[in-house]
């Protein structure tokens, strides 16, 4: 029981030395994907009119993905007459061009085209009229379109992440772009905030706050800042996780003496217990499956913490992880095919993934103190918290382990990442 109690509160205790960084994140990239696609990105005509340089953001997004070999195309005078053979000779299979113009109402018209130099054809075009503060997001959306048109996989550059910072005795729940830019504090408090998780529509965050001098689960509306107490039972209230339709949350409560899994409506009503509480076992960290019909969770019923799966009514419990004696923090990929989790082996806490169809697992991280994995909504990347050389930071890794990034706050440490869903167009 002590081991799994450590699992429940490990995150909160590990936050003690986090510092808030007022500056944006620094991104370091290592590794590349197999078969990188060479794509040339030209400077957008008149892009200096906008608050953000559109082409630079697109290049950074594509480069960070590890899927592309980005070629600087300089500036192209006439974007309506493309020298396909010339760009192909320069090694580019695709070419991105665009323009920016200022509108009378203060917005900016951002136009982009994507060309296939091999087939000498236009692959895509998009026009956006955006306010100045949305110029960065417009660039992310263009990068998403390039990613999709060239790989067949939806890009996730225009999504958001949430994470926790601490400065002295103040804690912040932060929302930012996936590259760490555009930080906004959703909540600031004098007591710990842990376990943020996004609602499926991206409009709310559920999290655990200690402001009542005990862990309580809240749902926070990001637009209105209104909050709802979802779970404030006797003892510990922890580990919120949304159902795929956003109507319910799984939570871990110790109201009956030892921690068990419950399901509650998003407004705090309809609380019901799901796990059976076998013996003195602790059941916690439940996550809904992609189809919402089952729950993956952590239990020490076998002696040490392992990942199990059960139906949402608590029936048909099956153990999922067998390698290693300590496996926690299960997260399911959006397609339901892959399980990510933290495993302790040889004294190291590291990120692993498992193919649920075959049971084959793979270690994705080289660090020794990993926490809080979270899948990108396209299922191709995982963000997690880690520590290296005494510095707490966030890291992103592709699910094949080839591409790795580290996001470090320039003036402090960050923890508890959660990758948000796709946003509506």
UniProtKB/TrEMBL annotation:
Organism: Rugamonas rivuli
NCBIfam families: propeller_TolB
Gene: tolB
Coiled-coil parts of chain: none
Keyword annotations: Cell cycle, Cell division, Periplasm, Signal
Domain TolB N-terminal span(s) in chain numbering: 26-123
Protein name stated in the entry: Tol-Pal system protein TolB
Any GO BP annotation: protein import
Record flagged with keyword Transcription: no
Domain Prolow-density lipoprotein receptor-related protein 1-like beta-propeller, first and last residues per copy: 257-409
Protein family membership: Belongs to the TolB family.
């Amino acid at each position: 029981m002590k081991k799994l109690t450590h699992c429940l509160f490990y995150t909160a205790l590990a936050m003690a030395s986090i510092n808030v960084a007022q500056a944006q994140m620094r991104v370091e990239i290592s590794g590349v994907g197999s078969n990188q696609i060479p794509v040339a990105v030209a400077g957008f005509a008149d892009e200096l009119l906008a608050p953000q340089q559109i082409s630079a953001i697109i290049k950074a997004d594509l480069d960070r993905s590890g899927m592309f070999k980005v070629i600087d195309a300089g500036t192209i005078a006439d974007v309506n007459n493309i020298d396909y053979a010339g760009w192909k000779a320069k090694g580019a299979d695709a070419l991105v061009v665009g323009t920016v113009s200022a509108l009378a109402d203060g917005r900016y018209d951002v136009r982009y085209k994507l060309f296939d130099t091999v087939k000498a054809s236009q692959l895509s075009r998009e026009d956006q009229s955006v306010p100045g503060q949305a110029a960065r997001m417009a660039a992310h959306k263009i990068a998403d379109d390039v990613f999709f048109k060239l790989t067949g996989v939806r890009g996730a550059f225009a999504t958001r992440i949430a994470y926790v910072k601490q400065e002295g005795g103040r804690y912040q729940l932060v929302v930012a772009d996936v590259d760490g830019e555009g930080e906004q504090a959703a909540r600031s408090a004098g007591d710990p905030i842990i376990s943020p998780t996004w609602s499926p529509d991206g409009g709310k965050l559920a999290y655990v706050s200690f402001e009542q001098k005990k862990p309580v689960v809240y749902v926070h509306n990001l637009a209105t800042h209104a909050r709802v107490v979802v779970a404030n039972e006797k003892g510990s209230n922890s580990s919120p996780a949304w159902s795929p339709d956003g109507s319910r949350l799984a939570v871990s409560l110790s109201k009956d003496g030892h921690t068990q899994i419950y399901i509650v409506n998003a407004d705090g009503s309809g609380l019901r217990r799901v796990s059976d509480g076998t013996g003195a076992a602790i059941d916690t960290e439940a996550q809904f499956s992609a189809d919402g019909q089952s729950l993956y969770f952590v239990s020490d019923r076998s002696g040490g913490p392992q990942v199990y799966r059960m139906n949402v009514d608590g029936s048909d419990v099956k153990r999922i992880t067998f390698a290693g004696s300590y496996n926690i923090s299960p997260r399911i990929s959006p397609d339901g095919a892959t399980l990510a989790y933290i495993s302790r082996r040889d004294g190291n806490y590291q990120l692993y993934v498992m193919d649920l169809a075959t049971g084959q697992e793979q270690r994705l991280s080289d660090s020794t103190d990993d926490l809080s994995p979270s899948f990108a909504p396209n299922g191709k990347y995982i963000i997690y918290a880690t520590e290296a050389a005494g510095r707490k930071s966030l890291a992103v890794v592709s699910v094949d382990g080839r591409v790795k990034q580290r996001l470090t706050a320039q003036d402090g440490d960050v923890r508890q990442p959660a990758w948000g869903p796709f946003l509506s167009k």
